[in-house]
């Protein structure tokens, strides 16, 4: 189902809280014109941030990569304030942060002395009941750029891919570049083969997911073998379990994969995914 979410009461834009309909930026904002900006989504479980430092570190990395000057030390108290102002301290929520390079005469090159536009808001999100979900996922070509490690607001490729999936009755689109699975349109992909957990290594072809990092820590702690190694599409017949992870996806079981309409993988919930979900719940709710 599309367009099911509602708008929020209040957002924070460039130093002020205001209703979203009053929050405006210039038409020459480079985020609007070029997608020249980055974003971050941090989960809050019953009011408590989860892996906040990791999210702030990734945001800092992305700002540095695209050379937007911004002091991230102001963020933490504002994020907590966003949660309390939106009355989300006793339910599950996330804080969205977006920083664009700001308005400048339209040139491809970066302006001197940019004035970034900074937007933030808290929104309610369902972080429970992921263990019961079974996602039917399509597989398609990863035609994104070569800097997927930057959490850029320029998400046209990702949105096209997700829309293809939803329009055709799937939950997510799992991407393949040069014959190897990379990640989902908004999630990290994991495969279990012969009891070993595989996920694409960090680098320019995936976003370095915070949930990915947590899952790998859990593997280490529980003694589950894992390899940060890309899995070839042609080896899908050797896979016993597939799951996707992300801040809002949590750890979601993939029940089937479909390439050009043909089912190439099917499975019920596997043992390893179940163990990871159980431990993930303990760590996020503990
Ligand atoms: C392309 C992509 N990969 C992976 C992820 C998962 O990242 P995280 O676990 O930090 O939410 C996301 C989340 O939005 C994403 O957009």
What does this protein look like?
The protein has 286 residues and is an alpha+beta fold. It has two domains: 11-124, 2-Layer Sandwich (D-amino Acid Aminotransferase, Chain A, domain 1), CATH 3.30.470; 130-285, D-amino Acid Aminotransferase, subunit A, domain 2 (D-amino Acid Aminotransferase, Chain A, domain 2, Alpha-Beta Barrel). Helix content is 24%, strand content 30%. It is built from six helices and 15 strands. The chain has helices spanning 30-34, 52-65, 75-85, 156-167, 210-222, 271-285, and strands at residues 11-13, 16-18, 37-45, 48-49, 93-100, 117-124, 134-141, 172-177, 180-184, 188-193, 196-199, 226-228, 241-246, 250-259, 262-266. Strands 7, 8, 9, 10, 11, 12, 13, 14 and 15 form a nine-stranded mixed beta sheet that branches. The chain is globular, with a radius of gyration of 19 Å. 36% of the residues are buried. The mean pLDDT is 96. The protein binds pyridoxal-5'-phosphate. Pyridoxal-5'-phosphate binds at residues 183, 186-188, 207, 209-212, 245-247.
């Amino acid at each position: 189902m599309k367009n099911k979410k509602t708008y929020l009461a209040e957002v924070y834009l460039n130093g002020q809280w205001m209703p979203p309909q009053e929050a405006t930026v210039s038409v020459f904002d480079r985020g609007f014109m070029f997608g020249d900006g980055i974003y971050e989504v941090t989960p809050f479980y019953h009011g408590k941030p989860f892996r906040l430092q990791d999210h702030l570190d990734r945001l800092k990395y992305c700002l540095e990569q695209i050379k937007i000057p911004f002091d991230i030390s102001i963020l933490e108290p504002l994020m907590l304030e966003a949660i309390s102002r939106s009355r989300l301290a006793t339910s599950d929520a996330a804080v969205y942060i977006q920083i664009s390079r700001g308005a400048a005469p339209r040139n491809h090159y970066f302006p001197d002395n940019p004035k970034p536009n900074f937007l933030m808001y808290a929104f309610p999100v369902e972080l429970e009941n992921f263990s019961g979900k079974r996602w039917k996922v399509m597989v398609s070509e990863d035609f994104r750029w070569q800097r997927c490690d930057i959490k850029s607001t320029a998400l046209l490729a990702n949105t096209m891919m997700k829309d293809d999936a939803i329009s055709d009755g799937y939950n997510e689109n799992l991407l393949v570049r040069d014959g190897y699975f990379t990640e989902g349109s908004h999630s990290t992909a994991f495969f279990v083969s012969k009891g070993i957990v595989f996920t694409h290594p960090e680098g320019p072809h995936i976003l370095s997911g915070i949930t990915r990092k947590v899952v790998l820590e859990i593997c280490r702690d529980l003694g589950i073998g894992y390899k940060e190694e890309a899995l070839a599409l042609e080896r899908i017949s050797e896979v016993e379990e597939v799951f996707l992870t992300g801040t809002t996806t949590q750890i979601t079981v993939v029940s089937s994969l479909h390439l050009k309409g043909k089912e190439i993988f099917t499975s019920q919930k596997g043992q390893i995914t179940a163990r990871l979900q159980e431990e993930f719940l303990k760590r996020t709710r503990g």
